[in-house]
Amino acid sequence: MGRIRKTGICRICKRRGYTELHHIVSQGHAIRTDQLDLLTNPGNIVELCRYHHNQTTASMVRKRLSRGGWPSGRYSRYQKKSRQPTLFDHIFGGREN
């Protein structure tokens, strides 16, 4: 696949200006689950302004890890957590699962 041509328009707010490319299914997840086609699939990439890109889960995780990681015990994998709408929900109008 060739390089993706950016339009300079955020997929969420439709504003023109500086944008960043965001993988809907993260590159790390694609590699861990052997879905390597998602790394270069243009359907797995959206163009977002910095404000909206910083609201993605991957950006939030990077920020938390750079501050020293997750608080211990706060995110038990056995607890059902209510969730905030994700970028996926906003773009596609529904839940990921």
What are the key terms here?
4 helices; globular; 97 residues; single chain; alpha+beta; two-stranded antiparallel ribbon
Largest sheet: 2 strands, antiparallel
Which band does the percent of strand residues land in?
5-15%
Q: Which structural class do you get from the secondary structure elements?
A: alpha+beta
Question: In whole angstroms, how far apart are the ends?
Answer: 28 Å
By DSSP (H or I, 4+ residues per run), the number of helices equals: 4
Share of residues in helices: 25-40%
Widest beta sheet: strand line-up: 1-2
Explain what this protein looks like in three dimensions.
The protein is of the alpha+beta class and 97 residues long. It is built from four helices and two strands. The chain has helices at residues 27-32, 50-53, 57-66, 87-92, and strands spanning 19-23, 45-49. The chain has a two-stranded antiparallel sheet. The longest helix is centred in the middle third of the chain and has 10 residues, at 57-66.
